[in-house]
Amino acid sequence: MKPHQYLGRTVVIFGLAATLAACAGPGPKPDSELQTAESAIQQAEASDAREFNPIILNDAQNKVADARELIEQEKYPEAERLLEQAEVDAQLAGARSETDKARDAVQQLNKNIETLRQQMQAEQQ
Predict the structure, then answer these.
(1) Is the full-model pTM beyond 0.85?
(2) Is the Cβ–Cβ distance between 76 and 27 less than 8 Å?
(3) Which residues contact 34 (CB under 8 A, 6 or more apart)?
(4) DSSP characters over the chain
(5) CB 3.0-4.6 Å disulfide test: which of 19, 34, 60, 85 passes with 90?
(6) CA-CA distance, 7 to 18, in Å (whole number)?
């Protein structure tokens, strides 16, 4: 082979390597996922998740904090996965909080009904 052929192949190989390295970059920054996860946490807090499901809510907040660190390190795919998990955790905490509040309300109504029944029975005797 002639020396200029080696040079041509070398240039092609380096060009392909540079293209592959550019494609293997960190990808897009997960800003929208971060906003969505934070919004889900705020909604869960508005649903009193701090009172009813603090562990799940704390898990969601910790995942967001960890994702922020990953974003600073430009590890976007890992951060995006954590943010998705945080969103789901926050939604779960909010849903469970709403369920717990509804359950408490039903229990209170049942107690009130039972009290009224007892009062009615006492008045009939």
Answers:
(1) no
(2) yes
(3) 64, 67, 68, 71, 79, 83
(4) --HHHHHHHHHHHHHHHHHHHHHTS--S--HHHHHHHHHHHHHHHHTTHHHH-HHHHHHHHHHHHHHHHHHHTT-HHHHHHHHHHHHHHHHHHHHHHHHHHHHHHHHHHHHHHHHHHHHHHHHH-
(5) 60
(6) 16
**pLDDT digit string (tens) for 56-93?**
999 999 999 999 999 999 999 999 999 999 999 999 99
Gap between the Cα atoms of 73 and 81, Å rounded:
15
Q: Are 86 and 58 in contact (CB under 8 A)?
A: no
What is the rounded distance in angstroms from the CA atom of residue 72 to the CA atom of residue 74? 5
